[in-house]
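Data availability (excerpt). The following record was deposited with the supplementary files.
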Amino acid sequence: MEVFVFDTHVKSSCGKYLHFDVFLHERSDQKARDVANEFITSQGIEASELALNQCDFCHREMANPAVASHILQHGSYILPMEGCR
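Predicted structure:
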């Protein structure tokens, strides 16, 4: 499965920085932002506290089987990098 990767950087008003990628099976900036906001909320940051600095399409790549399976079941996959639990 080919996936679209959205490089995402978030800084909350209290200064917490998160960096993660959103993987989708379609290129949709709005869906990427929606998924990013859901993930941010799951990290304990209230949506009203954050400034979504960047959630930009980065590139396309072939997903490994585990990521592809997760996307088929859940519609997206998050690859946490910095500041994520």
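Summary of structural features: The chain has two helices and four strands.
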